[in-house]
Amino acid sequence: MKDFQHFVNYYDKPGSIVLLEGKRTVLDADKPKIIKLSQLLSSKTKHITFRSGNASGADNYFSKGFSGVNAKRFEVVVPYSGHRSYDSEGFRVINIEDIPLTNDSPLVVQSKVNRRNLRIFDAYVAGERNTMAYKAAYLLRDTLKVLGHPPKIPGANFAIFYDDVQNPGSGGTGHTMNVCWNNLVPFVNQVVWFNWVK
Q: Helices 171-182 and 131-147, interaxial angle, to 10°?
C-alpha cells in the first residue's frame, strides 16, 4: 500500500470492512500517531466500516476518531457480554457468544491453526466457561474479526495493525495476522502506516 490516498481510493467503497488492531502495550510516542490515524480514517473515508477488538491499548486508541458522528462506522468484536462496555458505547458490538459454534465451524477450525493447546477450543465449544475456555474466547474473537460470520457479519477486506516491532507477530495480534495471512487478507503494520500520518 503506497500511501494513505492509495488506501482510500482502493478500499473506500460500500461494504468494505477494515480491521484496526494492535498490542495492549503502546509506546508513549506512538499513542498520538494511532489517534491521528483514527481521526484521518474517520474524516477522509465515507463508506468503510472499521472493526476492532475493544481491547485496551492500541484498539482503544484506534477507536478515538470514531466517537460521536462516525460511531456508526465503527464496530467492536468482544469475547463475552459486557467486555469493556465503557469503551464501546455508541459502536456496534459483535459478541462471539452470539455465534453458534461447533468443532467444525470455520471460526473454530481456523482458530486452531498454529495453536498448541487445542483443548481450550474444545472446552469452549462444549460450553465450559473457565479460565482456560475464556482464552479460546479471545482467540475466537480475533478470528471472527477477520473471517466474519456470513451472511450477517462480512469478513474483513484489509487490516491495519499496531504490532510490537521488536517481537513481531506474537500474542493475539500475531494470531490475527496469521488468520489474515491464511485467508489472503492484506495487511500493514506501523512500519507502513506511520508514513500516512507524517
A: 40
